[in-house]
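Q: My labmate handed me this sequence with no annotations at all. I'd like to see what the chain might look like in three dimensions before we decide whether it's worth expressing. Could you predict it?
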Amino acid sequence: MSINEPLHPSRPSSPANAVPLPLHLPQIEYNARLPDFCNLGVILRLLVIVNVMVLGAALARANIAVDASALMREFLLISIVAQPAIILSLVATCAAKPFFMKLTYWRGISAVFVLEGMIGVLFWFLHRALLPIVSAGESGPSISIVQFAIFFFVATAAVLFYFDLRARSLAPAFTEARLQALQARIRPHFLFNSINAVLSLIRDEPKRAERMLEDMAELFRVLMADNRQLKPLADEIELCERYLEIEQIRLGDRLKVDWQIKDMPALALVPPLILQPLIENAVYHGIEPQSGDGTLTIAIHSVGKQVRVVLTNPYQSGSTHVSGNRMAIANIKERLQLHFDAEASLRADINGALYIVTINMPITTEK
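A: Here is what I predict for the chain of 367 residues:
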């Protein structure tokens, strides 16, 4: 279950009657889809791309070899219309997001071009009203409707092409997530200790042992599942509770858990296994090295339109476990970026004898 210690083929092999995992793991196919035009990361990238194209158009129209100020004049001339058009495009595409989601990819592409074409025509007439045709010697050649249409068409195509390429480049990360799940990346010592804990309870507390086996089965079921889709936060909390029940049996009173989830948005969708690996690392890196009791605090609540998760566990400087914790943090940061782009963040801080991990994710109910 650890995200930083995969099982290796060099370790002792399974019994002869065990069913081996397939050597050729199924690949996750790439499904083309429109970008989330309401996402902060998408908006920022779109602004950068279009403004770079505006600069390119200004370079094409200005003769900077003769007059360097012509570049600035052409850039401002185009920006007078382009910047409001970009803002209106962002507002319109974000507002039309529910409509786009109902369409197939190529129909969605066509709808975006139609929408941007309408905006282009509107702003060309605005351009004609604000900047009437004058002689080239005074303020440079005017922008024709053909030039305007070409710019809008190329800009829209460039933006959609960029986001499609970016989505394709990130698709292997989802395959890797599937690979990690199929390889059952759990710590052998956790499995060994959990089985021993069950054996120690079978005679004296069979009901408790049965419950522990159910918890282990649920953990393995989630690990083997397809973890591409977002799941309700309540499901992730239930999984973490099952995991902590197992560790509670193993560590006894050494492990104390303080749940602060009364105000959490239970229906908010989050990436599967986004909290459990952090909690497991908190137990392994923070609680186990302690000579006495240790408290793991899990606080989840909403802040505006975001859900905030704060995990706090004891910290010992110089511990050899810290490097493994950094691997866990890097893994989850990447997954947050894949799902939420710039709208999610993860920060790890050391405050005296405490290790604090803070996650911010947008509250969404759309998978």
